[in-house]
Amino acid sequence: MINTTRKLRLGAISSILTQNPNVLYPLSYFSAMFGSSKSTLSEDMTILKESFETFGIGSLEVVMGAAGGVRYVPSVNKDVRREAMDEILEQLMSPSRILPGGYVYTADILLTPKYTDKMAQIIWGWFRDTNPDFIITVEAKGIALAASVARLFGKPLVVARRESKLTEGSVVTINYLSGSANRMQKMSISKRAIREGQKTLIIDDFIAGGGTIRAIYDIMKEFSVDVVGCAAAISTKEPIKKRVNDYKSIFILEEANSDENNISFRLSPDIDL
Amino acid sequence: MINTTRKLRLGAISSILTQNPNVLYPLSYFSAMFGSSKSTLSEDMTILKESFETFGIGSLEVVMGAAGGVRYVPSVNKDVRREAMDEILEQLMSPSRILPGGYVYTADILLTPKYTDKMAQIIWGWFRDTNPDFIITVEAKGIALAASVARLFGKPLVVARRESKLTEGSVVTINYLSGSANRMQKMSISKRAIREGQKTLIIDDFIAGGGTIRAIYDIMKEFSVDVVGCAAAISTKEPIKKRVNDYKSIFILEEANSDENNISFRLSPDIDL
User: Nearest-CA distance from B268 to chain A in Å?
Assistant: First the structure.
């Protein structure tokens, strides 16, 4: 039998866990909140786990023992995922996005949380077992997406800066060739942000030549950090040979021709839809 | 009486609404998902509303009529808020953050989603009735916080760039004096990002002299956009007279002295704890 208290608890626990993906909450947190016994709460968690799994919202992971608790492990319903990706794809396909020189305006999509959250769920699905200690990106257009990814992993974000700032403290700087333009660029990362031996997942908005991602790999070596994966919102079809091979991207830009007003994107074959 | 189906629905609906704050979901969305009647779902919503309000998680707003539905309106339990702010404050107070020249290292806090989300909830509480069409910030350190705020409002984010990029299309640029250093800086905003007559909320990581915020106010005038408010994670006590008056900040930096290794922050009196 389910009582009034349980029906009130279920919504509240679900909301709290959902807001904090991959954060372990001890059952004592909820028993203090509701005045319920741990055995009662364990039953609540069993119901929520079934609910999340039935409707493709994710799962609950129960960790036993004194340091134990429960955490929300996100995932996303296939229908919801397909619908979200189709919506973004449709928006990307608009010829009004084409800029002179074959550039594409994407800032609106990359800065809208409802889109970055859905893209982050795809990336989480790809790399959920890699267990990074932090997420890394380069300023500025990928930061919102990278923050959405960091939220799902329950980890901090580190942002490499184009110019080092006084507020970063001492930094490690790398000079590199940016992919398409073959122009020298630099990026700097605060030494305080990272500890030797950590693992990281690289997130970027856009991979064309791959020079920037290559540079992140290189600078991570300087920090003795292991790169467990690399994902971008968009990668270009051309050049096929990029400065980095090992990456996944959600969308592939096949063509953006400002003379003929043609634009074409497709969804990555890596997405399970 | 509550049946098995309801106890499974409650957790799922709570999770979906919580993940998409201020997004209106028609009841038909959930009836397609669960095969439940709208009257049954209305009862679910009443239970969830009571649950959220009882435990200080927010509220559910039910919009009647054909275009109606239900949306999650976030808020945060006072105890949770106090605990989160105390945790951030304790971290900020660490003398190891002091950099030469009285600068303070804060990137780790400003890029950790669990902190930016909690700070965003404070800002949401201050400005929830102002109804902005978008959130605006300047690259780069405030982007994660601004994205957290944009998520709570269910609105897009616009990022002013320090240097205009080809991928921004045509831009409006403003030159301005940055507060403390009295150095000329510029910021650019894509013309595509904003429509005349919209309303915006300004978010920044740090307000010292106020020059950057002043510049955003000025550039918003160029776009005929109305600024409904301005909030920062941190503002400095000195200078008391800043280039902008009308702002709120969560933390106030009272002192950072690298010679004496002193650092002092306090919580804004505007926070209801």
Answer: 22
